[in-house]
Design goal:
Blueprint (H helix, E strand, L loop, with lengths): L7 H5 L21 E9 L3 E8 L5 E8 H6 L3 H14 L8 E6 L3 E7 L6 H8 L4 H20 L2 E2 L8 E3 L5 E3 L6 E2 L26 H6 L4 H17 L9 H9 L11 H10 L10 H5 L12 H5 L8
Antiparallel strand pairs: 1-2, 2-3, 3-5, 4-5, 6-9, 7-8
The protein binds adenine.
The site of adenine (ADE) has 11 residues, from strand 1 and strand 5.
Length: 314
């Protein structure tokens, strides 16, 4: 369902279904149903604000997008991608949940899960780096969530520690699907591995060489970004980092990165299998799951991945 730009009167009025009945099922919320609190984050096209449902007292994060700005900058397509991707993925551990969408004259609103423990990036920065056990805990959740995304035909395309939030139980929640790619389902109901050429480029430090070289973006792009994130959780900084984007891109294309002395061998081995130039030579998510770093992880046991206590950080 695409955003329908409705008039002011309609936008705030209760909606009436096909039979002319006001139905609670389609009665949309409005921003007046929430008490707005502190700002949680700011993007180029949106602001995320803490919001409390006035009737249930439940907290949410409301992403507010300025319609004029979105239209002026031709970003309507991306707003719809975010909505469609989140709706396709539904409620799932590891994926930020979209509860409601609505609009008024000036703004579009996404009512999302509130992740009170902030970004994975903040966690990495606060502690400098994470130990092996923490890296296993967070990265196993990322693998499980990305696998679910890919199995449902969604490529995120901008995975990075800023887009991985930590919920009240210390579990990861992937957010920011505005630059996702929705794959079209094949006849047998499965989704293809790849998609056509694209003009899209994500964030310099996490962008894959195939996207820079061939403008090619498949599931392997998310796996590359995952490798960069795993490296960063151990090293405290991403593997490809330079003083400007151009120099970063050059490093990415040459797969020019190094491990510091203390970098654990088992994680080195994993990262080396991910940060591989050709996407077809790169390890798959299934291959990652079978890597010895995850020997103790039972990938079929959803609860063991999502319901166990996060390890102490040190
Ligand atoms: N910052 C951006 N989105 C957020 C969310 N859903 N919860 C907490 N902080 C956020």
């Amino acid at each position: 369902e695409e955003w329908q730009v409705r008039g002011a009167a309609q936008a705030s009025k209760a909606e009436i279904d096909d039979d002319g009945v006001v139905s609670s099922r389609i009665l949309r919320k409005t921003i007046k149903d929430f008490r707005l609190g502190k700002e949680l984050g700011e993007g180029s096209y949106s602001t995320v604000v803490l919001a409390t449902d006035k009737t249930t007292a439940r907290q949410f994060a409301v992403k507010i997008l300025d319609k004029k700005h979105i239209i002026r900058e031709k970003k309507v397509k991306y707003v719809n991608i975010e909505k469609n991707a989140l709706n396709r993925l539904g409620k799932r551990d590891g994926i930020i949940h979209l509860f409601h969408t609505f609009q008024d004259i000036a703004s579009l609103y996404f009512v999302l899960d509130y992740a009170p423990n902030g970004e994975l990036l903040t966690l990495i920065k606060r502690f400098g780096s994470l130990n092996e056990e923490c890296v296993r805990y967070y990265s196993a959740q990322i693998v499980d969530a990305v696998k679910y995304m890919h199995d449902n035909g969604v490529i995120h395309r901008d995975l990075k520690p800023e887009n991985i939030l930590i919920d009240s139980e210390g579990r990861i929640q992937i957010t920011d699907f505005g630059t996702a790619k929705m794959l079209d389902q094949k006849e047998d109901g499965s989704y293809p591995l790849d998609c056509r050429a694209t003009s899209f480029v994500g964030t310099a430090e996490y962008v894959s060489p195939e996207l820079l070289n061939d403008k090619h973006c498949g599931k392997a792009c998310d796996i590359w970004a995952f490798g960069c994130i795993v490296y960063q959780m151990i090293a405290g900084k991403p593997p490809f980092k330079a003083t400007n984007e151009y120099l970063t891109f050059q490093k990415v294309c040459k797969v020019q990165f190094a491990f510091s002395a203390g970098f654990p061998m088992i994680v080195r081995d994993l990262v080396k299998r991910i940060l591989v130039l050709k996407p077809r030579d790169r390890i798959t998510l299934r291959g990652i799951q079978q890597h010895w770093f995850y020997n103790q992880v039972d990938w079929n046991d959803h609860a063991s991945i999502w319901n166990s206590k996060p390890p102490e950080i040190a």
